[in-house]
């Protein structure tokens, strides 16, 4: 590729490049410049020297994480939770979007769609409070009901094994409206001519859904999954912290990297140590997304992220 | 793929280039910082030039800020030709913003400092200006005169002072708030010991449906049982050298020999005491996840007892008794043990490393700590409005008291502090009784510097939360097995290394 | 000829009905799961604090009280100002952000653009790596963002997630449309404005909604950069009210100081949810129409 070729291309695409310029500038300024702060992960930071002049620290900032004996457990938990979220959320959202689109009543569609969005607006603090109100042993709604029905009470807040299910369900519930909209938009973007053609060919509605709607949702699904996979090693701190908090009886099943790091650093608030944990998550996420993107590229070049 | 690899390397170059730009801005700030520390004496000694000092406080801006600080500034202008411009970091987000103030090398003069706000850490990282004895003597004469040497010693980080600590002999001992009406209803012995307290709690748990006998909120992230202060430390006359690790020495041990509290027979005994309470339903099964405010619950009649420092419980008692529904009282369950003074660094004021007005800043701290008029204004607001003076050392809450409260003016705590006149006699009696029992010992001023064992301290903290808390709240059935597991995890987390380091520091402090 | 069509028609009618029935059942169940907690919140926000402490949240208020709302609206001026800031920031940010997102996404969606993958990677990379809070804060400070409305608008203006989703929507627009316009002599920017934007209505509505929600719910940037109370957006104003109590409680414990305070925190939490959600919910039906109707690309093409 010669230099003149490159400049030739620049000229050829100058309009497109110009259209891209604001976004490129934006990410340079607000993402790439501060990204240099990653060096903090390898520094013994102090205020007077600043980020770059502070002395190097080798891998010392990573020690608290890897020497805790919990690194593997919390990393695994984070990835497994995110996988479950990706799977359950997308499946539920696709089903909801298709049903919303196909169900006859216009008002029913509109109202249900609005209602599905309600949980999105409830902050995790409030969700946590409501959950406690429902699940606690003494006066929780569930236990009061069980007692009334003559069953034994269940001690949800001291039994770790219930929590993966609860957390997956709560996350799905909260994300339902938001994700459904995205799939609904994808469905409405399908050219109605395609449906009409299918109808003329005599396809029934289920065939139509499986032959036209779902294949047309695949690009959106793939993109959303790929985007989620890049962050598979980042836990939703707000969710885990407000649902579980410091209840150590549940940690074995609910501790993710973010909550673990938060707890570890409450006593000594070392910026370098949190940078180190973040860097670890980034590297893992980067490796995973390269693999996933590679796989998608092999299957269909146009569907890949990059 | 190939394209993106090339792009990645291009981006690396870009990041490096931008890094240099950023570091250029960074170093500009540095110069400003060092410049000010090197030449603090632009206006040395003289107060000719009127100065506006920037002060950072924790907590919400009080509603009557303009009014009160208007008066403070009028007085300060007269006495030091300086005025204060205060920035408040709300309780909701101070933990994020406070370190950022230093990181950004913002131009500040005065800043609230406290051990629980990572004073040591900020000082080590160069956030505060070192205060030499000469500076203190020269610019802080009144305060220096009355401040005990022990208070200064506690404020030392690596041998250097970075804050003007509070100067009031507050005891740190915890007491309990109980329901006097229930005590009378069940005809129980007065609560004066761990045993009588247990009887009180168990009686409530057994007979008062809907009332949780003891309110604790371990969910706040406290790494100790909320009764540990009383039953582990006070009751055994131990001193836990640093609350972030479970290491203690006997308060009267001249050698300050450290031991791991979890390995002691006393701890196992205490576990049995706790387990007995838990099995009797003294606290709820889901105590680790409870979030509601204990005092609100107690006021509503849902909780039968709580423990806290005497100041807070005294105020609770006033409020509760005023509501009239129940009768509250304060009780000391370890009355015969040593009483210890709070660390002076629990509250204090520091001068920012970026300050260009060091002398004047110190003068202002001196005035606000040691000038009666200014101290009263800072601590209690405007007389007749926010408080009503009762003699020289007491006060009553004024009508507008809620409009001037809730921020860290505690940084100026001093011997001039007034006592709340409404605090009930029983609480006063307890504090009075303590006065003679305050125990002074060489290691009183010992502050642990954890910078060599940060990783281990993090891990030990995690172990305490994960293994000690459920054990102490009686959620693990086999106590000895649970204790063994805790000790095992603690060893794996590096407690021995911390112990060695801390012992070294203790020995050095004792001059051995 | 007539009878097969009839049977076919009947058959089609029944499978549609079947799907509708399944749809009604499942969607009604989901809707109940989503609305019950919200009813609980509304009701609790109107319940006396003491009653909540004693009985927990109830579907029907046991002791009716509007105290939580009077606490929230104790300083009505501040509250109205906060609404004003949020509405302004949301409106400006959404419009600007949506335009930039669409323009960027369009370029990336052009199959004939040689560097589309490289640029996609350039954007995507920023979602994986970041320098953390301190460098970001220093950068924003260097740009003089303190007590500046731009600090509320700029950080959320572009989001890689939205760009990529938008790009994937635009990729489904047939290339033929762009090509035929090009032959007619249209510029790239002209094609984007005149052809692509109208064809992307559902995607624009979706991303616009997400951007708006992002702005509406943001409090973190305000936490970092806004100190003046009259510049605070709604969510930060509310967040502070609640978190202040919690923070003070912990500080009291740590500092050994005694402070007396009482606030209806439980009902307040709930009232805040209502106050913060209400307005968005009033606007929602207007955006909704873009999601419920199919799009006919042919119509635009022709």
Automatic annotation (TrEMBL), chain A:
Keywords linked to the UniProt accession: Cell membrane, Membrane, Transmembrane, Transmembrane helix, Transport
UniProt-listed SUPFAM superfamilies = MetI-like
| Record field: transmembrane | 79-103, 115-135, 162-185, 214-233, 271-296
Gene Ontology BP terms: transmembrane transport
Report which superkingdom the organism of origin falls in: Bacteria
The record's InterPro entries line, in alphabetical order, gives: ABC_transporter_permease, MetI-like, MetI-like_sf
Membrane topology classification:
Multi-pass membrane protein
Q: Name one GO cellular component term.
A: plasma membrane
Subcellular location(s) of the protein: Cell membrane
Q: Which CDD domains match?
A: TM_PBP2
Pinpoint the ABC transmembrane type-1 domain residues: 75-292
Q: Which PROSITE patterns match?
A: ABC_TM1
Q: List the PANTHER family hit by this protein, alphabetically.
A: ABC TRANSPORTER PERMEASE PROTEIN, LACTOSE TRANSPORT SYSTEM PERMEASE PROTEIN LACF
Q: Which family does it belong to?
A: Belongs to the binding-protein-dependent transport system permease family.
According to UniProt, the name of this protein is: Sugar ABC transporter permease
From TrEMBL, chain B:
Task: Name the source organism.
Answer: Paenibacillus oryzae
InterPro entries per the UniProt record, alphabetical: Bact_solute-bd_prot1 (IPR050490), DUF3502 (IPR022627), SBP (IPR006059)
Q: Which residues form the DUF3502 domain?
A: 442-508
Statement: the UniProt record of this protein carries the keyword Signal: yes
Protein name (Swiss-Prot/TrEMBL) = Sugar ABC transporter substrate-binding protein
Show which residues constitute the signal peptide. 1-24
Q: Give a Pfam family name.
A: DUF3502
Print the organism lineage.
Answer: Bacteria, Bacillati, Bacillota, Bacilli, Bacillales
Q: Alphabetically list the UniProt keywords.
A: Signal
User: Which PROSITE patterns does the annotation name?
Assistant: PROKAR_LIPOPROTEIN (PS51257)
UniProtKB/TrEMBL annotation, chain C:
Q: How does it sit in the membrane?
A: Multi-pass membrane protein
Its taxonomic placement starts with: Bacteria, Bacillati, Bacillota, Bacilli, Bacillales
Q: Which GO terms describe its biological process?
A: transmembrane transport
Q: Which PROSITE patterns match?
A: ABC_TM1
The ABC transmembrane type-1 domain sits at 83-276
**Where in the cell does this protein reside?**
Cell membrane
For this entry, the protein name equals Sugar ABC transporter permease
Which superkingdom?
Bacteria
User: Which keywords accompany this UniProt record?
Assistant: Cell membrane, Membrane, Transmembrane, Transmembrane helix, Transport
Task: Give me the segments passing through the membrane.
Answer: 21-42, 80-107, 119-138, 150-170, 191-216, 270-287
Signal peptide positions are none
Protein family per UniProt:
Belongs to the binding-protein-dependent transport system permease family.
Gene Ontology terms: cellular component: plasma membrane
């Amino acid at each position: 590729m010669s230099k003149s070729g490159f400049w030739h291309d620049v000229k050829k695409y100058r309009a497109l490049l110009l259209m891209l310029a604001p976004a490129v500038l934006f990410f340079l300024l607000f993402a790439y410049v501060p990204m240099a702060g990653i060096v903090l992960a390898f520094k013994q930071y102090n205020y007077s020297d600043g980020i770059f002049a502070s002395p190097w620290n080798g891998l010392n900032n990573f020690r608290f994480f890897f020497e805790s004996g919990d690194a593997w457990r919390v990393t695994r938990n984070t990835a497994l939770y995110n996988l479950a979220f990706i799977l359950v959320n997308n499946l539920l959202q696709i089903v909801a979007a298709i049903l919303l689109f196909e169900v006859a009543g216009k008002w029913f569609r509109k109202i249900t769609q609005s209602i599905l969005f309600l949980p999105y607006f409830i902050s995790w603090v409030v969700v946590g409070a409501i959950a406690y109100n429902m699940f606690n042993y003494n006066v929780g709604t569930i236990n009061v009901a069980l007692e009334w029905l003559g069953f034994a009470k269940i001690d949800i807040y001291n039994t770790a094994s219930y929590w993966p299910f609860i957390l997956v369900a709560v996350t799905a519930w909260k994300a339902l409206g938001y994700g459904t909209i995205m799939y609904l938009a994808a469905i409405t973007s399908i050219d109605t001519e395609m449906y009409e053609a299918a109808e003329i060919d005599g396809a029934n509605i289920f065939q139509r859904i499986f032959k036209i709607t779902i294949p047309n949702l695949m690009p959106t699904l793939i993109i959303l999954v790929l985007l989620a996979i890049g962050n598979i090693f980042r836990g939703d701190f707000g969710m885990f912290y407000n649902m579980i908090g410091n209840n150590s009886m549940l940690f074995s099943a609910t501790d993710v990297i973010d909550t673990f790091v938060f707890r570890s650093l409450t006593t000594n608030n070392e910026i370098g140590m949190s940078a180190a944990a973040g860097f670890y998550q980034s590297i893992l996420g980067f490796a995973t997304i390269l693999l996933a993107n590679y796989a998608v590229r092999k299957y269909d070049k146009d569907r890949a992220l990059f | 793929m190939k394209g993106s690899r090339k792009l990645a390397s291009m981006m690396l170059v870009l990041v490096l280039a931008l890094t240099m730009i950023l570091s250029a801005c960074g170093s500009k700030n540095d110069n400003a910082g060092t410049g000010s520390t090197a030449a603090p004496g632009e206006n040395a000694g003289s107060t000719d030039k009127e100065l506006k000092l920037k002060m950072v406080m924790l907590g919400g801006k009080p509603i009557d800020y303009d009014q009160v600080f208007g008066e403070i500034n009028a007085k300060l202008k007269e006495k030091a030709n300086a005025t204060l411009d205060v920035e408040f970091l709300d309780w909701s987000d101070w933990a994020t913003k406070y370190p950022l103030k230093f990181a950004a090398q913002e131009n500040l003069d005065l800043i609230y400092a406290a051990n629980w706000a990572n004073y040591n850490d900020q000082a080590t990282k160069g956030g505060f200006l070192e205060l030499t004895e000469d500076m203190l003597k020269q610019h802080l004469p009144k305060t220096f005169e009355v401040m005990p040497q022990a208070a200064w010693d506690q404020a030392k980080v690596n041998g250097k002072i970075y804050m003007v600590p509070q100067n009031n002999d507050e005891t740190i001992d915890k007491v309990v708030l109980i329901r006097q009406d229930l005590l009378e209803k069940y005809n129980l012995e007065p609560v004066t010991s761990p045993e009588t307290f247990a009887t009180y709690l168990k009686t409530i748990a057994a007979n008062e449906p809907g009332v949780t006998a003891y309110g604790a909120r371990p969910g706040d992230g406290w790494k100790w049982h909320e009764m540990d202060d009383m039953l582990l430390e006070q009751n055994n006359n131990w001193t836990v050298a640093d609350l972030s690790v479970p290491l203690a020495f006997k308060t009267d041990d001249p050698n300050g020999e450290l031991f791991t509290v979890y390995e002691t027979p006393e701890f196992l005994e205490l576990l049995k005491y706790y387990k007995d309470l838990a099995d009797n339903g003294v606290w709820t099964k889901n105590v680790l996840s409870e979030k509601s405010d204990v005092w609100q619950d107690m006021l509503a009649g849902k909780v039968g007892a709580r423990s806290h420092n005497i100041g807070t419980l005294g105020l609770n008692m006033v409020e509760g008794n005023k509501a009239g529904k129940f009768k509250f009282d304060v009780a000391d369950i370890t009355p015969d043990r040593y009483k210890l003074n709070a660390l002076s660094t629990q509250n204090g004021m520091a001068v920012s490393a970026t300050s260009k007005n060091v002398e004047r800043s110190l003068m202002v701290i001196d005035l606000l700590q040691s000038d009666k008029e200014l101290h009263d204004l800072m601590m209690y607001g405007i007389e007749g409005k926010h408080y009503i003076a009762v003699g020289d050392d007491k006060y009553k809450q004024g009508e507008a008291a809620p409009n001037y409260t809730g921020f860290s003016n505690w940084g100026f705590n001093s011997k001039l502090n007034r006592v709340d006149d409404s605090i009930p006699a029983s609480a006063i009696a307890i504090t009075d009784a303590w006065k003679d029992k305050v125990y002074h010992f060489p290691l009183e001023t010992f502050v642990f510097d954890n910078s060599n064992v940060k990783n281990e301290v993090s891990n030990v903290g995690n172990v305490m939360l994960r293994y000690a808390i459920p054990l102490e709240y009686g959620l693990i059935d086999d106590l000895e097995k649970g204790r063994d597991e805790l000790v095992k995890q603690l060893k794996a987390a590096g407690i021995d290394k911390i112990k060695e380091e801390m012992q070294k520091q203790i020995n050095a402090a004792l001059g051995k | 000829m007539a009878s097969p069509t009839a049977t076919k028609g009947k058959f089609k009618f029944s499978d549609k009905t079947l799907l509708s029935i399944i749809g009604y059942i499942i969607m009604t169940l989901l809707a109940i799961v989503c609305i019950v907690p919200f009813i609980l919140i509304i009701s609790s926000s109107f319940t006396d604090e003491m009653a909540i402490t004693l009985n927990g949240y109830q579907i029907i208020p046991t002791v009716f009280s509007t105290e939580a709302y009077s606490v929230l609206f104790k300083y009505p001026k501040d509250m109205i100002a906060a609404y004003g800031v949020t509405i302004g920031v949301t409106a400006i940010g959404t419009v600007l952000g949506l335009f930039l997102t669409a323009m960027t996404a369009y370029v990336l969606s052009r199959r004939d653009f040689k560097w589309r993958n490289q640029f996609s990677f350039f954007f995507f990379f920023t979602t994986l790596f970041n320098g953390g809070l301190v460098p970001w804060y220093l950068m924003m400070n260097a740009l003089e963002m303190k007590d500046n409305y731009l600090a509320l608008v700029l950080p959320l203006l572009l989001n890689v997630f939205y760009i990529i989703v938008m790009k994937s929507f635009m990729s489904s627009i047939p290339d033929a449309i762009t090509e035929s316009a090009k032959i007619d002599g249209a510029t790239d920017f002209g094609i984007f404005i005149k052809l692509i934007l109208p064809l992307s209505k559902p995607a624009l509505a979706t991303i616009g909604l997400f951007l708006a929600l992002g702005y509406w719910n943001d409090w973190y940037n305000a936490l970092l950069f806004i100190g003046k109370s009259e510049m605070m957006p709604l969510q930060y104003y509310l967040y502070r009210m609640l978190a202040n109590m919690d923070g003070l409680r912990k500080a009291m414990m740590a500092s050994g100081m005694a402070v007396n305070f009482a606030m209806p925190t439980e009902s307040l939490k709930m009232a805040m949810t209502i106050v913060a959600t209400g307005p968005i919910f009033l606007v929602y039906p207007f955006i909704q129409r873009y999601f419920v109707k199919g799009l006919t690309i042919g119509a635009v093409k022709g």
